[in-house]
Amino acid sequence: MRDAPASEEAMPKFLVSYDLRSTDPDPHGEFLDQVESAGWTVWKLAPNGLYYHLPNTTLTGVFRDIDTARSAFQSAWGKTKSKGYKVIVEKWIIVEYNAATYNSDDRED
After folding, report:
1. 76-to-7, 36, 38, 46, 83 alpha-carbon distances in Å
2. Which CATH code, of 3.30.70.260, 3.40.630.30, 3.30.70.1170, 3.30.70.2360, is assigned to 10-95?
3. Alpha carbon 105 to chain centroid distance?
4. Residue-wise pLDDT tens digits, 75-103
């Protein structure tokens, strides 16, 4: 988990939700590692200083624009495949947001 650097604070925030098809071996752990290294995260920092875990197959990230967000998300597919996993993203949506309200039973400081 990390806070966005000051230079990222003015950049647009994005949310992606996706469905991965079940395959063997399960690619989801490796896929999460790859999307996180591309700038996406499963954690959302709240104004109370706690990090809230987003719902399954939902990520947030700060990127220059929606095309950069999409490219970062899609690059994780290829990187996961290059590690020997079969990755089938059945559906996905990326949206830019300015405000959010959320809750989670999984929180960390």
Report:
1. 24, 9, 7, 26, 11
2. 3.30.70.2360
3. 18
4. 998 999 999 999 999 999 999 999 888 88
